[in-house]
Specification:
The complex is a heterodimer.
Chain A (H helix, E strand, L loop, with lengths): L2 E5 L3 E2 L5 E8 L8 E6 L5 E7 L6 E3 L7 E6 L4 E6 L8 E8 L12 E4 L3 E5 L2
Parallel strand pairs in A: 2-11
Antiparallel strand pairs in A: 1-3, 3-8, 4-5, 4-9, 5-6, 7-8, 9-10, 9-11
Chain B lengths: L3 E4 L2 E4 L5 E7 L7 E6 L6 E5 L3 E2 L7 E6 L2 E6 L9 E6 L6 E2 L3 E5 L1
Parallel strand pairs in B: 2-11
Antiparallel strand pairs in B: 1-3, 3-8, 4-5, 4-9, 5-6, 7-8, 9-10, 9-11
Classes of the chains: A mainly beta, B mainly beta.
Chain lengths: 125, 107
């Protein structure tokens, strides 16, 4: 069974930094694109970032480009999101998700299945 | 970037009704479209991928159709468990994007 478990969310001040983690199990982690999606309180889903299975290719939403960095450690089956210069509008529940499409280690965009349970990031003074 | 527009934003319906939600893309995305269901306090769940392929374990009352720029999600006979928020998502290319969501409410 595929499982994704996010961690690292907490209360942080504006301008601060935070690193989220997503521990994966139940599949060959290195062969799937992994994605971060966030959901602000009471709002819809916003795609944040994705990384190819090999880690060679990364993609970002304009809203986080230059501030967030996605990475992965395939030896630890773990996905990361380094978040710098945080703003109030980054407050959200952050989900990691596995792409359903198999792309080997390459980059390809796909649908998301499954999702983790999410980790809450609150940016406030 | 490709923009996704869902309609309606809210839909009121009764158990047993047939309902349709529409998603439009700002340019052709072929069949690179997924539909998700999200219930309060839960992560989204994949229902449909490649515009019309039913995800394993999803009831057959859910169906998807369309290609190019216009897509629909249809629930043939609403069940009490179906009242939730539904999102479309294109994955034609990065950045992928979600529609703004459709809240399906009990009438």
């Amino acid at each position: 069974e595929v499982q994704l478990l996010e961690s690292g969310g907490t209360l942080v001040q504006p301008g601060g930094s935070l690193r989220l983690s997503c521990a994966a199990s139940g599949f060959t982690f290195s062969t799937y694109v992994m994605t971060w999606v966030r959901q602000a309180p009471g709002k819809g889903l916003e795609w944040v970032s994705a990384i190819s299975g090999s880690g060679d290719n990364t993609f970002y939403a304009d809203s986080v480009k230059g501030r967030f960095t996605v990475s992965r450690d395939n030896s630890k089956n773990t996905l990361y999101l380094q978040m710098n210069n945080l703003r109030a509008e980054d407050t959200a529940l952050y989900y990691c998700a596995k792409d359903k499409r198999y792309c080997g280690g390459a980059a390809c965009s796909g649908e998301f299945d499954p999702w983790g349970q999410g980790t809450l990031v609150t940016v406030s003074s | 970037d490709i923009q996704m527009t869902q309609s309606p934003s809210t839909l009121s319906a009764s158990v047993g009704d047939r309902v349709t939600i529409t998603c439009r893309a700002s340019q052709s995305i072929s069949s690179w479209l997924a539909w998700y269901q999200q219930k309060p306090g839960k992560a989204p769940k994949l229902l449909i991928y490649m515009a019309s392929s039913l995800e394993s374990g999803v009831p057959s009352r859910f169906s998807g159709s369309g290609s190019g720029t216009e897509f629909t999600l249809t629930i043939s006979s609403l069940q009490p468990d179906d009242f939730a928020i539904y999102y479309c998502q294109h994955y034609s290319s990065y950045p992928v994007q979600f529609g703004q969501g459709t809240k399906l409410e009990i009438k």
